[in-house]
Write a structure and sequence with these properties.
This protein is an all-alpha fold. 36% of the residues lie in helices and 0% in strands.
């Protein structure tokens, strides 16, 4: 007799925590969220797999077969993501290539509002 790790009474959140790749199966069958009329934000109810199947009109047995296949297959577990962003690019990036620090320039700076008060809008 085959024992299933995921059945109709298993909470969707528990399935997603134990088997992150199961999210792809859920998304293929419908949204995990519920949009309520007059409510701007989506709701994510604490639902069972059976509730999810009923709400989205999905065949429960087919959904359970797919979820259990994902749970039993270790090859589908997500690969660890790299923790660093890698090395920064070498050389200038975009418009920064032409930037030069002005050391001994004769540029006078004047606050914008003070200039408007002195010279007017023209």
């Amino acid at each position: 007799m085959e024992t299933r790790t995921i059945d109709a009474t298993t909470k969707v959140n528990d399935v997603l925590h134990r088997h992150p790749r199961a999210g792809e199966v859920f998304i293929q069958h419908g949204p995990l969220s519920v949009a309520q009329r007059g409510n701007f934000y989506l709701q994510y109810p604490d639902q069972t797999v059976g509730d999810f199947a009923r709400r989205n009109g999905v065949d429960l047995e087919a959904l359970l077969d797919q979820l259990n296949a994902v749970a039993e297959t270790g090859a589908l577990e997500p690969k660890p993501r790299p923790t660093g962003r890698g090395r920064p690019p070498e050389g200038p990036i975009g418009y920064t290539a032409a930037y030069r620090e002005l050391k001994n320039s004769d540029i006078e700076s004047e606050p914008f509002v003070a200039s408007l008060l002195t010279h007017g809008l023209d």
